[in-house]
Every structure is written in C-alpha cells, then in structure tokens.
Design a protein that fits this description.
TIM Barrel, alpha/beta, 39% helix, eight-stranded parallel beta barrel, binds 3-methyl-2-oxobutanoic acid
Length: 272
C-alpha cells in the first residue's frame, strides 16, 4: 500500500517565505541521484534542485538543451527517494514550456512522477501567462531571470545580464510581473549584485541567487562545481569548497555554513 510521506517536517514555500521575512539565508544545491541527495540533505541544504545542468555535468553535453522531461523525471525520482526534509525543485527542460497548456501538462506530469514540490522555469517575460496558469492549478513555481542557459544560442554565450540601465529596469519590472502572476520563488542567475539586491528588496517572494551577490535570500550552486569535479573553466560565481576539507560532507557543510552566515559569496564571486 502506498503511504504518502507526511509534509510535517518538509521545507515548504511558506517556510522559505518566513526565512526571508526573518532575514535568514537558506542554502540550495543541485543533486541528481539518491546518494548525493542524502548527503546534501544531511549537510543542511534546504532546497535541492534537479537542474537541467545535468545535461552538462552528468551527460557531458555542451549545453542544457538536449535534456528531456524523461531525464528530469529519472533523476528527480532518485533524489526524491533520498529526501525527508529538504524541498525538491525540478527544472522544466528546453521545449517543455512552449505554451501555457503544454507547460501545465508537463509540470503536472513531472510532479506526479517525482513528487517534487516546485517546478523551475526559464523564459522570464514569455512565461508570465504560464506562471499564472500553473498558479491557478495549484502548482508552485520558481521563475528564472538573468542568464538563461536554455537561450545560450540566442544570447551567443553565457553572459552577465542586466548590466545596462534599460535591461536592469526591464528585469525588475519582469520580476514584479512574475510575482504578481503567482510565482512562489525567483532565481536570478549572473546579474549585477546591486540589481539583485534591488529585486530582492522589492519582491515579497524569496529570491535565490547564483552569481547574484550576497543580498539575495538564498544561494544555489551546481554540486559538481563546489566539489571541483567539473572540467574546463570554472565560473567566477562558484567556489571550490573541497579546498582544505577532508571529505565531500565537510565541503558541503562548509558551503551551507558560509551561505547562512553571509560569508559566501564574497566580492570575488560577484558581478558589478
Ligand atoms: O540547472 C541548474 O542547475 C540551474 C542552476 C544553475 C541554478 O538552473
């Protein structure tokens, strides 16, 4: 017989909102399998993302574009099996959000298959109607602004976003519209720290940053980056937490510790 896991001790969206109101930072990290899901949760990470970064760090592609909904489902089921308390968030992959109806169908499908609590969607302004639709069907969503890796070919590379006054104003306006549409969380990737601070102060929903400075409500990084097992050039916003640590557990715990105390990121990981 299937007995649903109680939500009593789960980190929920309202819990993250309370942390924001209390000025307490929270730590998020990606994971893609059961074993790392367990380690990450045991080290105190509050939100675990099965990101489409799996296309790069697990599958070896150059971009996140080849990742399918089935890939996300496969990895998220494994991570979900590991989590007792941490929130599970899943990425909606490229091509799964081409209309609000398609997004609703795919999000419903992935949530059923994985028991994730939140879906994350890239696309910014084009996803406002989708966020509204998901919200009206009771699906929690995390909007994603700034650098959107699924648009890498359109952007011509992985670049900091929101550097000009126009683009910064536009990002702030879109963030407000997404909140208004019913987004529960917002993720900001590679944006100037001052802009991220302004967006975080303006919105009531929690803002999670990656390369978005210290003042956001939560931080997220790719697990393989902090464990220093990604090949090639390391992103400026990341940090090798294995350095000086005796184990993977110690490195992840250090990450959580530094995020919660506002020690990570420091100036060297931020964009102006
Ligand atoms: O796919 C992913 O891992 C992400 C993070 C970089 C935030 O979206």
């Amino acid at each position: 017989m299937y007995i649903p896991r109680p939500l009593n001790n789960k980190i929920t969206v309202p819990h993250l909102k309370k942390l924001k109101q209390q000025g307490e930072k929270f730590a998020c990290l990606t994971a893609y399998d059961y074993s790392f899901g367990k380690v990450v949760e045991q080290c105190g990470v509050e939100v675990v993302l099965v990101g489409d970064s799996l296309g790069m760090v697990i599958q070896g592609h150059d971009t996140t574009i080849p990742v399918t909904l089935d890939d996300i489902k496969y990895h998220a089921r494994a991570v979900n099996a590991a989590l007792d308390n941490a929130m599970l968030m899943v990425d909606m992959p490229f091509g799964s959000l081409n209309s609000p109806q398609q997004a609703l169908d795919n999000a419903s499908d992935v949530l059923k298959a994985t028991q994730a609590q939140v879906v994350k969607l890239e696309g910014g302004i084009t996803q406002i109607k989708t966020v509204e639709m998901l919200c009206s069907y009771g699906i929690a969503s995390c909007a994603h602004l700034g650098l959107q890796p699924q648009q890498v070919h359109k952007m011509g590379g992985y670049r900091v976003q929101g550097k000009t006054k126009n683009s910064a104003d536009q990002m702030l306006a879109t963030a407000c519209d997404l909140e208004q549409a019913g987004a529960d969380l917002l993720l900001l990737e590679c944006v100037p720290a001052t802009l991220a601070t302004l967006i975080t102060k303006t919105l009531e929903i929690p803002v999670i940053g990656i390369g978005a400075g210290t003042d956001v409500d939560g931080q997220i990084l790719v697990l393989h980056d902090i464990l220093n097992v990604t090949s090639g050039k390391k992103p400026k916003f990341s940090k090798n937490f294995m350095q000086g640590q005796p184990s993977i557990q110690a490195a992840i715990s250090r990450y959580v510790h530094e995020v919660k105390r506002g020690q990570f990121p420091d100036q060297s990981h931020c964009f102006a």
